[in-house]
Amino acid sequence: MPLYEYHCADCHARTEALRPMSKADEPVECCR
User: Fold this and answer.
1) Are the C-beta atoms of 15 and 30 separated by less than 8 Å?
2) Residue 25 to residue 8: CA distance in whole angstroms
3) What are the b/e assignments for 15-24, b being 16+ CB within 10 Å?
4) Do 27 and 9 form a contact (C-beta atoms < 8 A)?
5) Per-residue model confidence as pLDDT tens digits over 1-32
């Protein structure tokens, strides 16, 4: 599974998520 980096528009935090390619475009909960 690929590791994706996401940027939170609310708090500007960056988080990484290991997830299948089929879910790459789905939202990720902020880590904060």
Assistant:
1) yes
2) 14
3) eebeeeeeee
4) no
5) 999 999 998 899 999 999 999 999 998 888 66
Between CA 30 and CA 27 the distance in angstroms is 9
**pLDDT for position 18:** 94
Placement of tokens 């988080």 in the chain:
15
What are 29's two structure tokens?
Answer: 């909960």
| Phi and psi angles of residue 9, each rounded to the nearest 5 degrees, phi first | -70, -25
Give the position of tokens 């996401």. 6
